[in-house]
């Protein structure tokens, strides 16, 4: 298969095997995920009717909960004991992610999230800002209940905000370098995956080199996750993805598909592209850009990059498993969980939403 000439992302992905389903990934941690769901149900309730209505609406987004799943899988891989603290940290990770989605939808003027109206579309900008802040605040309060976790999660949230601000600061800048793009997505998206993986090990008291390998796995997988998300914005099916697409172009974001396209155009085409990307696009210019993305096989090139990131993550996983075995003896690594983590990396590439 010539992955460099692949078209829409709905075509066959570059990873081998069947599509990785989340229920397969979560099979060894079903109890933890059920406990998380019950815990979060309580967090998304309020005795104040207006607040309860918004929280209940957000709870209906049917989130994937990939980040807490990674936390639980790495904890189980390390033979950690399941405690209430572990469930709380899973909830904190999911709540931080949820708050970022509420704010992102507002910043992107998105109308849908998981086939449901976004908060700002239903209640307005002010409630969307404040409910995101409310969820952040509650997450921080929870994190203080687990020793040693509040500082880590606060720094992570700071990085997420830095990534978003960095992206906003580079809107409508068509000469954005790939290195800056990667820095943006590592901060705004990948860091939360990385910390989820790292904390899974830290709560199980693994050695520092193993914890760093867990972190690196999450960073690679999270970066690939965002690359695929940026591809879906061009080539996804809104009915399948379940959220508003095309927002990156409308908001002047230079994502990997546009960066790679820019490098493949003729000098005249590149000048045209850079001239139209400095301001909100006219419909005919957007249509032409989408046609060029398809014509030049850019989505396939992005999938190759994402595959390379996932391959790197799998190498880190091998190192971590070997180090765990060396440190704790034969049988220290749960092979079923190890396979689920490999599948989780494949899922990032295969996902359609």
Q: What does this molecule look like?
A:
The chain is mostly helical. The protein has one domain: Farnesyl Diphosphate Synthase (Orthogonal Bundle), CATH 1.10.600. 71% of the residues lie in helices and 1% in strands. The protein is built from 17 helices and 2 strands. The protein has a two-stranded antiparallel ribbon with strand order 1-2. The radius of gyration is 20 Å and the shape is globular. The two termini are 23 Å apart. The N terminus is likely disordered.
The CATH first-level class comes to Mainly Alpha
Low-confidence stretches are 1-20
In CATH, the homologous superfamily goes by the name: Farnesyl Diphosphate Synthase
Percent strand equals under 5%
Strand and helix layout:
Blueprint: H1 22-25, H2 30-43, H3 49-59, H4 66-77, H5 84-108, E1 112-113, E2 116-117, H6 119-123, H7 125-143, H8 150-169, H9 178-202, H10 208-235, H11 238-241, H12 247-250, H13 256-264, H14 267-276, H15 283-295, H16 298-328, H17 335-350
Antiparallel strand pairs: 1-2
């Amino acid at each position: 298969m010539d992955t460099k000439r692949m078209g829409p992302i709905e075509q066959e992905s570059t990873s081998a095997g069947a599509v990785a389903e989340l229920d397969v990934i979560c099979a060894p941690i079903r109890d933890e995920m059920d406990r998380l769901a019950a815990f979060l149900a309580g967090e998304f309730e309020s005795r104040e009717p207006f607040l309860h209505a918004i929280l209940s609406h957000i709870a209906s987004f049917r989130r994937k909960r990939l980040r807490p799943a990674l936390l639980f899988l790495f904890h189980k891989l390390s033979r950690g004991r399941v405690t209430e603290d572990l469930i709380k940290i899973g909830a904190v990770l999911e709540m931080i992610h949820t708050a970022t989605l509420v704010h992102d939808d507002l910043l992107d003027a998105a109308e849908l999230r998981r086939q449901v109206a976004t908060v700002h579309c239903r209640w307005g900008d002010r409630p969307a800002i404040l409910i995101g802040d409310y969820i952040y605040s509650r997450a921080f309060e929870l994190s203080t209940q687990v020793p040693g976790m509040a500082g880590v999660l606060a720094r992570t949230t700071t990085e997420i905000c830095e990534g978003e601000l960095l992206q906003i600061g580079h809107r409508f800048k068509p000469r954005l370098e790939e290195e800056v793009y990667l820095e943006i997505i590592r901060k705004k998206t990948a860091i939360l995956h990385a910390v989820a993986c790292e904390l899974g090990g830290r709560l199980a008291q693994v050695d520092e080199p193993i914890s760093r390998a867990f972190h690196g796995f999450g960073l690679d997988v999270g970066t690939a996750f965002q690359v695929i998300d940026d591809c879906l914005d061009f080539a996804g099916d809104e009915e399948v993805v379940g959220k508003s697409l095309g927002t990156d172009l409308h908001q002047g974001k230079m994502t990997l598909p546009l960066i790679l396209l820019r490098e493949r155009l003729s000098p005249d085409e590149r000048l045209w592209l850079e001239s139209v990307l400095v301001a909100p696009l006219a419909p005919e210019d957007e249509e032409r850009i989408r046609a060029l993305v398809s014509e030049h096989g850019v989505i396939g090139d992005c999938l190759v990059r994402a595959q390379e990131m996932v391959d790197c993550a799998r190498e880190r996983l091998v190192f971590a498993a070997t180090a765990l075995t060396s440190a704790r003896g034969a049988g220290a690594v749960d092979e079923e969980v190890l396979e689920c983590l490999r599948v989780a990396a494949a899922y990032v590439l295969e996902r359609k939403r």
